Amino acid sequence: MELYVGSSGWVYDWNPDGLAWYASQSGFNAVELNMSFYSFPKRTTVEKWAEESEGLRWSIKVHRSITHVRRLNEKSHATWSKFRELFEPIEDRIDFYLFQLPPSMAFTPEAASRVAAYASLAEKIAVEPRHKSWFRKEVYEFFEEKGVFFVTPDSPLFEGLPPDGVVCIRGVVYVRMHGRLAWYNYGYLDEELREVAEKIISANPQRAYVFFNNDHDMLGDGLRLKEILLERGVSFPKPF
């Protein structure tokens, strides 16, 4: 199993020198771009990221106008095309485009149709549901069929991982660590990180991606999970 660990964004109090430090000194080998949910980056900014992040694997969080305003409907497709064009300078490093769904978006035939439409538009689509109706076997089978990666949250939604554990789609798991008792402001206990590690291993993926989105504790928690999984013999491709 190849392991990729990173944080959701890199502008935090634990980072003394931006993306360049993150890529060469953090101990992480992947990053989840979070600012793209709020605004479209400039093309020149993406080109600068390309220069500073050699070796890192990326997940790009899709803009909220696509996921939350238009909720993946047909009118969002044109915006998606413009959004994706911006990331051409790092396209070869991008493993996922992350579609975080609004909490009110349940799994319905219409929602399934919208996800399927995006699956036909592009590869590397990863979806993180925030409504409990998505967390069941039939949905996982649908994602497997369409080639859409399912993002497993560790969050207050279930006070940890969902009951089914970590979901593996086509040999890939993608876990987002938000915090168990509070969103974003949470430090994981060692036993909780070991539990997550065991659930990842039990899913038996070829590749596992884990991104920490718990602000101040994300660096220490991410490195500790990496250490636990390395003890279990996983492979950790280095970014430098």
From TrEMBL:
Transmembrane segments: none annotated. It comes from the Archaea. It holds the Pfam family DUF72. This is DUF72 domain-containing protein. It comes from Thermofilum pendens (strain DSM 2475 / Hrk 5). The lineage of its organism: Archaea, Thermoproteota, Thermoprotei, Thermofilales, Thermofilaceae.
